[in-house]
Amino acid sequence: MNECCLKIAVPNKGRLSEDVMDLLQRAGLTISKNERTLYATTHDGNYTVIFVRAQDIPGFVSDGVTDLGITGQDIIAEVDLPVEDIMELNFGHCRMVIATKEESPANKAEDLSDGIKIATSFPNIARKYFEKLGKKVHITEVSGATEVTPQLGLADVIVDITSSGSTLRNNKLKIIGEILQSKAVIIGRPGIKEEQQTKINAFIRAVKSALDAEEKKYLMANLPKASLAKIKEFMPGFTSPTVTMLLDNDNDVAIHAVIEKKKVYENIEQLKQLGATGILIMTVDQMVP
Predict the structure, then answer these.
(1) Reported pTM
(2) 141-174: per-residue pLDDT in tens?
(3) CA–CA separation, 142 vs 163, rounded Å?
(4) 67: containing domain
């Protein structure tokens, strides 16, 4: 492993791992990974990506094993180690909730009785939460399949993460409280050396450019010159659309613009009304203002 590389810990499996790898690819970090890969260096030699359990990433960062890590805010809250949030990402959204059997008379966490049994993969968060409520509870830490523990008689209540709640409903559980909301985040350790900070800044810039591009599309079209004055009213691009001449055509010009993805069809309709032809819509991989 090249010690001069910026080292980044990322989840080694699961949906979060897939989302992180997709983001790194779009940010220009080209790496090869298979199921047995423990770490990989990008093709340009500037970054080493280390694949570990999402739960272990805050420890890798706080101990200085890696410079950065990408994991969930729920995991960071659970381990409570000295790491710094550097950048929130737009995936990995979930909620940490309290759930109990559908037939339970409790409809909120405050309704729960002292002495209940709680199963969770987040014992520290659960303990702090119920202490604030003044509840005396018995917490059992489990590493997976938390939602089945009430039906097996191992717990009365669970504290677990959920995205849609469908798994809880499928196991005949109802949500009676929410502890926190979570998403993926890039974390770093305090006291980064100046030379590493420069690399970190470059990495964050690349990631941000990929995230910004997600909500954009690149549009090209031929347009009558007479309609140019109206274009900027609804299609500004970065500052204004780029306009280029067409060969052997004095009446039309070609326009290029970055537009909001959610406004693509609206913009196309507006362009057609202005006489636009040859409209092309393309994806944007990265966008650096």
Answers:
(1) 0.83
(2) 998 889 999 999 999 999 999 998 899 999 999 9
(3) 19
(4) 6-92+183-213
